[in-house]
Amino acid sequence: MTNPVLQALSNAKVAERVDAWQRNEAAMLAALKRQFGELPAQQTPARAVALSAFIHWCEAKGVRSCPAQPAVIAQFSLENASLGIDAISEAIDHIAAMHEAAGLANPVATWIVAEALDGIGGDTEAPRSWPKEHKWRFTQLPCVLRRYVAQHERQREKVVRQAHNDAAVAKRQLADIQKPAEAAHGNQTAAA
After folding, report:
1. 4 preceded by a cis bond (ω within 30 of 0)
2. Confidence bin at 191 (pLDDT 50/70/90)
3. CA-based angle 99:101:105, to the nearest 5?
4. 34-84 residue pLDDT tens
5. What is the pLDDT of residue 29?
6. What whole-number distance in Å separates Cα of residue 75 and Cα of residue 58?
7. pTM of the model
8. How many CA atoms lie less than 13 Å away from 161 in the CB half-sphere?
């Protein structure tokens, strides 16, 4: 059995230590803000909606939204997967920004959140332009980055195809213009 007086003293020491940590960390944050300035608040309507949805979800689950644990963010992502990877990625970006604005570590930059996002939208294949021996590296990129690279490559390929098509049309048009000129020039040479 534990003596209640000793337990109370132990709890008080732990509470004192936690309070001291919080005071010291707040002082460090204040000093850094004086040195580097405040992080600009980028509260957009989209961010407010995404954070509101996350905060309400956390309240319903009985967990903290800030600072959020990586497992909480991963579970939020999986339970809301029906919204699609784009909406989830946007919400995740706003959660990361919220933590960074509060001077907290980014809980999104963890393996468990990456795995959850992979489970939602990890079906992106490496771009065709990547060498075959390096395509396996594509799977090692975070889901959001893979989606960005793949989308960027699709857009680039579309622009290149359009440029090739435009060049082919221009080449045909030039050939059509040169044929009558060559024919007329060839007739003049024959007559001379």
Report:
1. no
2. very low
3. 40
4. 766 655 555 566 667 778 888 889 999 999 988 999 999 999 999 998 888
5. 67
6. 10
7. 0.55
8. 6
Look at residues 84, 73, 19 and name the one whose alpha carbon lies nearest to residue 51: 73
Give the span between the Cα atoms of 82 and 152, in whole angstroms.
24
Q: What's the average model confidence in pLDDT over 108-132?
A: 82
CA-nearest of 124, 45, 119, 108 to 82 is 119
Q: What is the residue whose two structure tokens read 């699709």? A: 154
Q: What is the DSSP string of the chain?
A: ---HHHHHHHHHHHHHHHHHHHHHHHHHHHHHHHHH-PPPP---HHHHHHHHHHHHHHHHHT--STTPPHHHHHHHHHHTGGG-HHHHHHHHHHHHHHHHHTT---TTSSHHHHHHHHHHH--PPPPTTS-GGGHHHHTTS-HHHHHHHHHHHHHHHHHHHHHHHHHHHHHHHHHHHHHHHHHHHHHHHHH-
Q: Which residue has the higher pLDDT, 185 or 5?
A: 5
